[in-house]
């Protein structure tokens, strides 16, 4: 039992997908269910932290004791996270943020024609990179990476590029990992270069492990 070892800590977690509107009825999104981020938020609250969960649209119940802020688009998530970042001790970015949005959102439903339709996409701001560029002393930043190939190389490069203290790499290809599952297979990468590869575990247990490692780093 971990008790209330996160008492006094302010923890912000992002979770779920973002939705990028094309018109009033359609959007661009991904398969994230929010389970990993909700598990982290729930465990952090159980361990006594003051938790803010910035969540994209999910079907999940708000974990007990968690302050939930609902958003839809990546730009809304950017505003919700950046406006609360300064007060946080740990920021854990488990959300699957859309990298692109339709460059224009139509006011009325787009009507179909006979031929193909091309949609121009605009780049969304990178929330984690913005947090990393503006990290206050003592604040710890944890990112996530999910890839279909070259997972660990990509994860290592994200950890550096976005100035994270820790990065959780999870594969989409492994059985028991990825979207919607209750278990995860992850490699933890740390800014000091070391790595940790726990075996398959529940998302709740992985949440505790991530929080253990952040707490350990905060005491150093
Ligand atoms: O580079 P990539 O998007 O794969 O990085 C993944 C990490 O960055 C995740 O922690 C994700 O939540 C975060 N991210 C973000 N803002 C974006 C894209 C990704 O915070 N626009």
From TrEMBL:
Its EC number is 4.1.1.36, 6.3.2.5. One of its GO terms (molecular function) is phosphopantothenate--cysteine ligase activity. Keywords: Decarboxylase, Flavoprotein, FMN, Ligase, Lyase, Magnesium, Metal-binding, Multifunctional enzyme. Pathway: Cofactor biosynthesis; coenzyme A biosynthesis; CoA from (R)-pantothenate: step 2/5; Cofactor biosynthesis; coenzyme A biosynthesis; CoA from (R)-pantothenate: step 3/5. It comes from Agathobaculum hominis. The chain holds residues 180 to 399 of 399 of the full protein. This is Coenzyme A biosynthesis bifunctional protein CoaBC. In the C-terminal section; belongs to the PPC synthetase family. In the N-terminal section; belongs to the HFCD (homo-oligomeric flavin containing Cys decarboxylase) superfamily. The keyword Ligase applies. The keyword Ligase applies. It catalyses: (R)-4'-phosphopantothenate + L-cysteine + CTP = N-[(R)-4-phosphopantothenoyl]-L-cysteine + CMP + diphosphate + H(+); N-[(R)-4-phosphopantothenoyl]-L-cysteine + H(+) = (R)-4'-phosphopantetheine + CO2. Residues 11-220 are annotated as: Phosphopantothenate--cysteine ligase. Binds 1 FMN per subunit. The lineage of its organism: Bacteria, Bacillati, Bacillota, Clostridia, Eubacteriales. Residues 6-215 form the DNA/pantothenate metabolism flavoprotein C-terminal domain. Catalyzes two sequential steps in the biosynthesis of coenzyme A. In the first step cysteine is conjugated to 4'-phosphopantothenate to form 4-phosphopantothenoylcysteine. In the second step the latter compound is decarboxylated to form 4'-phosphopantotheine. CTP binds at residues 99, 109, 125-128, 144, 158, 162. Its cofactor is FMN; Mg(2+).
């Amino acid at each position: 039992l971990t008790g209330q070892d996160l008492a006094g800590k302010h923890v912000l977690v992002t979770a779920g997908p973002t939705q990028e509107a094309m018109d009033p009825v359609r959007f661009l999104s991904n398969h994230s269910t929010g389970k990993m981020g909700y598990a982290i938020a729930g465990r952090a609250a159980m361990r006594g932290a003051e938790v803010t969960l910035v969540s994209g649209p999910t079907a999940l119940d708000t974990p007990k004791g968690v302050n939930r802020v609902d958003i839809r688009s990546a730009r809304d998530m950017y505003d919700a996270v950046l406006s609360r970042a300064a007060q946080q001790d740990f920021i854990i970015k488990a959300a699957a943020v859309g990298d692109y949005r339709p460059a224009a959102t139509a006011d009325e439903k787009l009507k179909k024609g006979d031929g193909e339709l091309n949609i121009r996409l605009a780049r969304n701001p990178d929330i984690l990179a913005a947090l990393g560029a503006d990290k206050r002393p003592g604040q710890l930043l944890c990112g996530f990476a999910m890839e279909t190939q070259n997972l660990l190389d990509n994860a290592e490069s994200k950890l550096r590029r976005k100035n994270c203290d820790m990065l959780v790499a999870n594969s989409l290809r492994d059985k028991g990992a990825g979207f919607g599952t209750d278990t995860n297979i992850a490699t933890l990468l740390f800014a000091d270069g070391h790595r940790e590869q726990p075996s398959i575990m529940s998302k709740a247990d992985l949440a505790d492990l991530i929080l253990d490692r952040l707490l350990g780093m905060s005491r150093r």
